Each structure stands twice: as C-alpha cells, then as structure tokens.
Amino acid sequence: MIMTQRATVKTTCPYCGVGCGVAAPAAAPRNARVSGDVSHPVNAGRLCSKGSMLGETTGLENRLLHPMKGTRRIGWNEALDEVAAKFSSIVAAHGPDAVAFYVSGQLLTEDYYVANKLMKGFIGSGNIDTNSRLCMSSAVAAHKRAFGEDLVPGSYEDFEEADLVILVGSNTAWCHPILYQRLLAARAKRGTRIVVIDPRRTATCDEADLHLPIAPGRDLRLFTALLCELAARGAADEGFVARSTEGLEEVIAAAKREHRSLEETAEACGLDPSALETFFRWVAETERTVTAFSQGINQSQRGVDQVNAIINCHLLTGRIGKPGAGPFSLTGQPNAMGGREVGGLANQLAAHLEFDAAGRARLARFWQTDTLAAAPGLKAVDLFDAVAAGRIKALWIMATNPVVSLPNADVVRRALKTCEFVVLSDCVANTDTAACADMLLPAAAWGEKDGTVTNSERRISRQRAFMAPPGEARPDWWIVSEVARRMGFADAFPYEGPADIFREHAALSGFENGGTRFFDVSGLSAVSDAVYAALEPVQWPVRGTDGTPRLFADGVFATPSGRARFVAPASAVERPAKESAFPLTLNSGRLRDQWHTMTRTGLSPVLGANAPEPVAEIHEEDARAAGIADGGLMRVSTEYGSGIFRASVTAAQRRGSVFVPIHWSDANSAMSGAGRMVHPEVDPISGQPAFKHTPARAEGVAPLWRAFFLSRREIAAPGCGYWARRRVEGGWLCEMAGLSEGEAPPELGLLAGEGGGTFEDGFEEMEMRDGHAGALRQARLRNGRLTDCLILTHGGRLPPRDWLSALLVADEIDAGTRRVFLSGRAAEGETEGRLICACMGVRSDAILAVIAEGACDVAAVGARTGAGTNCGSCRSEIRSLIERAETEEAA
Ligand SMILES: Nc1nc2c(c(=O)[nH]1)N[C@H]1C(S)=C(S)[C@@H](COP(=O)(O)OP(=O)(O)OC[C@H]3O[C@@H](n4cnc5c(=O)[nH]c(N)nc54)[C@H](O)[C@@H]3O)O[C@H]1N2
Ligand SMILES: Nc1nc2c(c(=O)[nH]1)N[C@H]1C(S)=C(S)[C@@H](COP(=O)(O)OP(=O)(O)OC[C@H]3O[C@@H](n4cnc5c(=O)[nH]c(N)nc54)[C@H](O)[C@@H]3O)O[C@H]1N2
Ligand code: SF4
Ligand SMILES: [Mo]
Description:
Layout: E1 8-12, E2 21-25, E3 35-36, H1 49-52, E4 68-69, E5 72-73, H2 76-94, E6 99-103, H3 109-123, E7 128-130, H4 137-147, H5 157-161, E8 164-168, H6 172-175, H7 177-190, E9 193-197, E10 210-212, H8 219-232, H9 238-244, E11 245-246, H10 248-258, H11 262-269, H12 273-285, E12 289-293, H13 295-298, H14 303-317, E13 326-329, H15 336-341, H16 357-367, H17 380-388, E14 394-398, H18 402-405, H19 409-418, E15 421-426, E16 439-442, E17 451-454, E18 459-463, H20 476-489, H21 498-510, H22 529-533, E19 538-539, E20 564-565, E21 584-589, H23 605-609, E22 615-618, H24 620-626, E23 633-637, E24 642-649, E25 657-661, E26 694-701, E27 705-711, E28 722-728, E29 731-738, H25 748-752, E30 763-770, E31 775-782, E32 785-793, H26 801-808, H27 815-823, E33 835-837, E34 842-843, H28 844-852, H29 858-865, H30 875-890
Parallel strand pairs: 6-7, 6-14, 8-9, 8-12, 9-10, 11-20, 12-13, 14-15, 15-16, 21-25, 22-24
Antiparallel strand pairs: 1-2, 2-3, 4-5, 4-16, 17-18, 18-19, 21-26, 22-25, 23-24, 23-26, 27-29, 27-32, 28-29, 30-31, 31-32, 33-34
Helix pairs in contact: 2-20, 3-20, 3-21, 4-14, 8-10, 8-11, 8-14, 17-19, 28-30
The structure holds ligand MGD (2 copies), iron/sulfur cluster and molybdenum atom.
C-alpha cells in the first residue's frame, strides 16, 4: 500500500468525552502546536483551551522512559517476565481472584480490550475495574435498568435541535466546552432555553435562563416531583407510554407520595417555589427537551436512582429517540464509552455481554477459553479494600492515578504500600501512584499511539500517532499482550497492531448477536489495515456501512419485551439532618484549564495561569462564621482527612457547602488533594463514589509567613505547611506559607541549592532584608539573567507574580529592574492581571483597558483583544469583568 504523505495527521483530543478532532503536524518536533480538525463532525475545527494547548504538553518533561523496578532501570524483557511470573505464581498459589487490574477510560479501545480479555478471559477473574466506576457507572446501571442495555440514545445534534436544554450536575461550559459552544451557537438562532441545576453558580449558569441552586443531593426529589407535574399538566405521551414502556403505574403512584405540593418540594430542594414552578412549566410545555447530566448526578449515594428519575420523565413524555429530545449522559473521559463497550467494568463482559450463563458461554466460545471468569469482580472501592486486606496480592494499574482520585485516598496509598506486587503503566514518572508501585512500565502517550476512542454520542474516532514514542515507551496493548504471552496465552494474543485487535472487538460485537445487543460494530470487523488507518468518525451501531446517530427512533428498546422500563427509586425521602461536627457539605470537581491530576495539563504555563493555586470556594456567611478571609488560607476537614486551600469567599457558592478542585496532589502541593477528604460512601447499585457530598468543616488559617519562590529549574517540595507549585514560562513558581512555629521561613540557598556556583563567572546574588517587617528578597543571576528568586513576608504584601516570572525569560535584568526588585516597589501596580483567555493569551488588564475605552459587550472585547474568540469558555469571565466595571462606574 502506498501512503500519501500528509502535512497533518488527524487524531482525537485525549481529554474530555466531547471527542474533538485534532490536526497535528506530521513528523513535527515535540511541543509543536496543534489545531482543530475542520473535517471532524464534533468540533468542525474548534478546540477548547486544553485542546488548543496540547502542544505544550507533549514534551519529555517528567516522562517515564524506561521500565523501572523500584529506582533501578531494567530492560523490557526482564520487566515483562517478572510481571508475568508474579501474576502466574500468585494465581497458582491463591487463585485468580488474588490478582486484579485497575484500568482507565483514558486507555484506547484496543488497549482496553486486551486488558479485559487477559483478566476475564484467561486469568479467569472478574477483577478488572476501571476509573469509569468513579465516573459513569451510575449512568451505566440506570441505562441498563431503563433500556435493557447501556445505551445513550441521542447525538450532539439534539442539543442544537432542542428548545429546552436542562444541564443538571454538569459544569458544561468548563467540562464539555465545545459541546457547550455548539449549544450556544444553536441557541443564538433558535432561542433555546437553558436551565442549569447545580448547587453552585458555575460558569455554565452565566448563559442560563434559569439557575436552580439545588441543595446538594436533592435531585432525586426534584425529578420525582417533575414526573408528577408532567403527568398532572398533561405532558404525557400516552400512545408512547402504552406502546413502548412498562411500569408507569407503580412509579407514578410512588412519586405522588413524595411530591405533595410545590411548596414542600421547593423547601426540600432548597429552591424558590416560583423558580421551581417556572422549571415545571417550561419542561411541561417544551416537546424538544434534552436533559444532560454528569457528575453532580452520577457521583452521589443515589446516583443510579437519580439517572432513572431523569429517564422516567423522558419516557413519560415520549421525548426520546426524536430530534432535539432525550436524556443525555455526558461522559467524562475520552474513552469512557469505549471502556464500557469492551467490558472494562468488573460487573460486565466484553461487547455488552452480561455475566449470565448465555453471555458467558457466548464469550467463552468466541475467545475459545475454558477459564472465563465465573462471576463479576470487585468494584473499584471494594477492590482497593481487598488490596488493603491482603486478599488481592498483585495489582496492575494502567492510565489512572488512584492514590489521588479515589475516595479516602490515604487508605488507598497505604493499601498499595502493603500490597505484595504493584505494577503501574503510565507515561509520567512522578505521579503519587508511581511512588507506591514496585514496577513502572513506560507507556506511549497521546500522539505516539494508535487506536480508537468512543465519545459521549457513541462516535468512534481514531487516535493517530504523529510522533515516535520516546525512550523505550510502548503502547499499552503491546505491554499487556506481551505479558499475556509470557503467562502462556500466546495463541489468544497474537496481535501485531491495534487494527488486529479492533477487528476482533468488532467481530465479537456481532458474534451470535442477531439483533439482541444494540452494541454492534460488526460492519467494521473486516476493515483492512488501510481502511482502519483512514477510518472516519462514525456512531455505533455500525451493522453495515453506516453509523446510527439516534437510537430508539422506532420505540423499541433492548429489554426482553422491547419496552423501556420506568424505575421507581428506592425512596427519595431524605434522612433528617442531625447535629454534626461536620456541618458543611464538601463538593469537588473540575476547573476550566486543568485535566484531573495535572500530569499533562500541569506542564503548560498557559493552562496554569487561570487558576494558579488550589482554591476552595465558600459562601460569605459560612466564611465569616469560620474566620475565613477571601484570599487567605483555609483548612477543610472531614472524618477522613484534611487539606489546606487558598480561600475564595463568594456568593456563587451555596450556603453550607464548600467546593474544592480535584486537580492538586502531593506531586504539586503540600495538602491540597481532594481525594483524602472524600468519604468512601458509594451508590449501593453502581458502586460509584459520592464524591460530591462529604460532610466537612472549614476554618481560617493564619500563616506565620508567606513567600513565593521562582526558579528556572524544577522546584522540589519545600516542606512547609502550605505550598503549591506550577509551571510558568521559563521555569517554575511555588507559593508557600508557614503554618506552625516549627516551619522556619525558607532561604534562597536552601531552596535553590547551596553552592550554586558561587565562584563561577557571571554569578551574582542580590538580597534585601527588612528585619522590621520581616521581609526578605533574594535573587540569583547568572550572566545577568535571573535564575532563582525568593520573596518572603511575615505580615506584608507580596509583589505580583506575573511581573517577576516575566523576568525569568528576560535576557538581562538591568540596573533599574534590580532596584525595583530590591525596593519591593513592584508590589504596587506592575501587573498584567490574571490570564483570562488561555487560547489567545489575553490577561484581565488588557480586557479592562478596552472596557474602559468603551467596549461594552463580549463581542466588542473579542474584536479588540481577541479574548473569547477561540473556544469561548472564558466568555463568562469577560462578561463578569464588564459587569464589575459597570457597577464600579455606577457606584
Ligand atoms: N476542564 C476539565 N474538563 C473535564 C475534566 C477535567 O478534569 N477538566 N474531566 C472530564 C471528566 S473525566 C468528567 S467525569 C467530566 C465531569 O464533568 P462535570 O460533571 O460537569 O464536572 P464536575 O466539576 O465534576 O461536577 C459538575 C457539577 O456538579 C455539581 N454538583 C455537586 N453536587 C451536586 C448535586 O447534588 N446536584 C447537582 N445537580 N449538581 C451537583 C458541582 O457543583 C459541579 O459544578 O468532565 C470532563 N471534562
Ligand atoms: N474528589 C473527587 N475525586 C474524583 C472525581 C471528583 O469529581 N471528585 N472525579 C472522578 C472521575 S469522574 C475521574 S474520571 C477520575 C480521574 O482520575 P485519574 O484517572 O486518576 O486521573 P488522571 O490524572 O487522568 O490519571 C490518568 C493517568 O494516566 C496517565 N496516562 C495518560 N495517557 C496514558 C496512556 O496512554 N497510557 C497509560 N498507561 N497511562 C496514561 C497519566 O499520566 C495519568 O497519570 O477522578 C475521580 N476522582
Ligand atoms: S472540548 Fe476540549 S478537552 Fe474536550 S475533546 Fe474538545 S478540545 Fe478536547
Ligand atoms: Mo470522569
């Protein structure tokens, strides 16, 4: 076959489940800039800030380049032999359930398929679970209950064809930005109403026609009430209910017992009755309604019931399988959906086959194995409990960072440390989980590996390599297959490339299917290598040559009767609140420009600029009561652990709750990880942790001293009570604070390393101490360029970070700048403000300047500065700058 040389390689973004197409320069150097793929049906060329900055994250910084046993570099042969021997011997001694895999929705479908095949098919245990347990498992369980299979009915087009879009438990503007921008663009034409249901006033609320700041965990109550109201207001589609559903009578009777009056429901949900009435009315009168939900719904003790309560409303009104209508689960990770297709969850088999006799027999025939797992394995939280208890003795973790991302994370860390054998496949060397592993296997990263991912709308897209893997990094499918061969399963793992695996996966989906399983991509089971290489994005099912944008258009579902099921929640009545040492609710979630534990987005100076520190958000009245000052430090504590955060005191936060970001870990902060504070409570059906609702308390913390340290070199953990470090242009910046008498204020020599070449040519030190104010300014220069500096104060102000970090990339620190540095005058003014638009690199001062000159809306600011003209996720921040300027003017 002759490959035509192309200037760009089309691939798919490795971050969120929107699944945007990316065009990357072929054979370019590392850190080359990427752009949106204009031909991709999802994004038509647009990317959000994270996608736009992918080029800043593909360097070799922190990369794991070789297999490592402890701190010793070993060869691949030795590593693979040892993993295979350890797993084999533990299985021989203790049985297959003494080993486990914990994998990730960030693996490609082909990687995932072989990992699942090895564990469930040949090792013979159900013990493979995935971080999608933390993310999508409640939606999966609810889909199965209602539809008979894990199926997302609609497409992104439905957001564009709807007249009402309800975004519940979803910060869509930040977490699914390009889909959100598609919605806004469509709304500009058709006037779509947008309702956001979230305890916080998020960026997503800025464009909403209605924001319902619901009390945490009350969505079940709300959607149960909505079902009653829809029935009472004549919105039921009786023909659809009769033809295509079952179980309405009991469900509506149960719902009516809970929803007795608008006022009572409003009170229970913490909502204003008139806002609730508006919501009920809008839903009742709008045929084309989409209800999109994400972690505010899934990550809850009642996650599965909540999703079913949402689906019930769509079934009652027949608003499903039609243009512009349907319940829509927004998936988080790029391949959360693909992982479900291959059976990555411990309680399901590959290709949507169930753990029943028929499903097991069918899969055993296809894989030609007689050691297929007999029963479902352990779900993530239980799986790590089994590791802690010593029942699981060997664990292989792939493409996830559980020491940061699981609830009660310190217990997870201890479990790994006591486990006999922990293997981690990752592309990064310095994660918190890597610190607990016995063996590290270097995985090829995005841009270096080939395969497929499936996005939230069931669209399969190719990820393609455009760089060679560095060092000895290898694709995950290869690593797993090599271990499988060494465990004696060579015949079942003969793959030479991802195309071989994809064909097998596609063939399995059609195997003895005969229309019994909707997940069917058998139309792709005979693709040649060339067709696979050129595969265009397509939505499953793909039975012949075409994809399927929308399911259930004929009113037939995947249940035995073909009817969708109404599902009654166990009971929506809440336990009464009792007096507690932890009166607040700890909520946790995402920021606009970071991805999870920051192993990749943390490498980008641009992405680090919008939210430079781990900030906890709290309502003014709760802050006042707890002695917390805006911009000061605060401690959040739960029964399980505590953390220190920069405080943001804001009316956007609901009273009684605190929000913390999930992105910081011990790799980049002292005590700002969310996971160690989260309770290990899970939904009883799905096993998904209730990350959004941990009882907590908060208090202000008064630091003894505060400082920041800038360096051209990577900054090591400084060891004080609060610190958080990030990449800046040309180096690193670390914020620090001393919280107890034992924490001596740092000195530059200690932080930057003593003897940094005192006797070398061109080396200088500058220092200013003000004993009275307890201030210290120290800097080191080499050949006139700044290499490190420390600014410390006991009670005063610290200068703007931007001004100083800009000096890191300056060629020469002139005499004037030196005087300013030593005098501390830069503390007044000299800032360019906060980075607002990451894509176009526009800071708040530039935006305020054009507002002062008369730019009075987002479009005008965009026209003059470029801000907000690319992905658009900063538009709400621009709008609030305009509003603030207007109120200041009015005052
Ligand atoms: N920028 C960015 N985008 C991402 C990711 C990222 O790391 N960074 N990760 C991706 C992944 S894996 C996922 S799963 C998705 C998650 O996407 P989202 O679910 O949109 O994100 P979260 O911030 O976790 O939570 C959403 C909202 O739920 C709200 N919430 C909390 N409790 C409740 C409640 O009781 N009821 C309701 N109605 N709402 C509640 C929170 O206040 C929060 O605003 O994002 C994906 N996209
Ligand atoms: N408190 C709290 N905790 C949460 C959540 C929350 O809302 N609140 N949300 C939960 C959710 S929804 C999710 S999805 C999880 C995410 O949590 P994690 O999955 O733990 O987070 P990531 O940082 O995405 O970890 C991915 C790891 O895979 C590595 N990696 C990247 N590409 C590859 C590859 O191709 N191969 C291999 N082998 N490794 C690779 C990365 O370097 C990184 O170390 O967090 C969960 N935890
Ligand atoms: S919305 Fe952003 S993070 Fe999500 S796939 Fe598109 S570019 Fe990537
Ligand atoms: Mo997720």
